[in-house]
């Protein structure tokens, strides 16, 4: 009788473990179902790296929003306080919207106010005047980037950072149920890679 009871306990425990694994797997797949990817074609080339130490400053997230002057007629302005970056970008069809002149608003992008859209910004790293993303490598998951657009301030938090092989294409992995900011530049100290920064919308002022 004792042997039978022990065997029954073992069988029940085994069933419980299998059931638990199935539940966990179902939850994981459910969480992943809205993950999507998008391939975009870009051409970025590494330039010389700037290793000069930067003086970093941060601004309180509770500061009131005061729109940045925009005499150049930018579509939007990207600000990342951690790396002292503030740079505008033009609309997709503007003649100055190209990586050789400016921070570039990529053609497959959505606008910041589009539901579940993806704002994709691309720029060079290096030491030249147009190397707007030269210090992007200093960013970590949890850091903040902001985009000013049509009188509103969109605040994003970085959720993922990953490298892609530099072959003329970039695959963007993101949660398509969230408004996203994607930033892309060459990987620091690696001529064969480019780095993708995925940030999700936290608030709009």
Gist of the model:
The chain has 205 residues and is of the alpha+beta class. Helix content is 15%, strand content 34%. It has an eight-stranded mixed β-sheet, with no helix packed on it. It has a two-stranded antiparallel ribbon with strand order 1-8.
Describe the SSE topology:
Layout: H1 2-32, E1 35-41, E2 76-80, E3 85-89, E4 104-105, E5 118-122, E6 144-149, E7 152-165, E8 169-175, E9 180-186, E10 193-204
Parallel strand pairs: 5-9
Antiparallel strand pairs: 1-8, 2-3, 2-6, 4-5, 6-7, 7-10, 9-10
Biggest sheet record: 8 strands, mixed
Task: Give the name of the CATH superfamily of the largest domain.
Answer: Sortase
Helix content: 10-25%
Q: What is the overall silhouette? A: globular
- Provide mean pLDDT, rounded: 80
What radius of gyration results from the CA coordinates?
22 Å
Q: SS-based structural class?
A: alpha+beta
**What is the CATH T-level topology of the largest domain?**
Sortase, Chain: A
Number of helices: 1
List the quaternary state of the chains: single chain
Please indicate the percent range of residues in DSSP E strands (runs of 2 or more): 25-35%
CATH architecture of the largest domain: Beta Barrel
User: Based on DSSP secondary structure assignment, what is the total number of beta strands?
Assistant: 10
- Elements, N to C (H/E): HEEEEEEEEEE
């Amino acid at each position: 009788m004792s042997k039978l009871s022990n065997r029954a306990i073992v069988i029940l425990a085994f069933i419980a473990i299998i059931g638990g694994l199935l539940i966990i797997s179902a939850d994981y797949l459910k969480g992943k179902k809205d993950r999507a990817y998008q391939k975009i074609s870009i051409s970025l080339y590494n330039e010389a790296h700037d290793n000069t130490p930067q003086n970093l400053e941060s601004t309180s997230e509770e500061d009131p929003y005061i729109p940045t002057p925009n005499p150049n007629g930018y579509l939007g302005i990207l600000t990342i306080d951690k790396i002292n970056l503030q740079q505008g970008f033009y609309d997709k069809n503007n003649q100055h919207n190209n990586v050789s002149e400016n921070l570039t608003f990529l053609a497959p992008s959505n606008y910041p106010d589009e539901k579940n859209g993806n704002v994709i910004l691309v720029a060079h790293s290096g030491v030249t005047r147009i190397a707007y993303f030269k210090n992007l490598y200093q960013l970590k998951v949890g850091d903040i980037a902001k985009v000013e657009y049509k009188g509103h301030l969109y605040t994003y938090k970085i959720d993922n950072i990953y490298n892609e092989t530099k072959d003329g294409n970039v695959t963007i992995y993101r949660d398509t149920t969230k408004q996203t900011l994607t930033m892309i530049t060459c990987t620091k100290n690696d001529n064969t890679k480019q780095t993708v920064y995925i940030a999700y919308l936290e608030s709009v002022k």
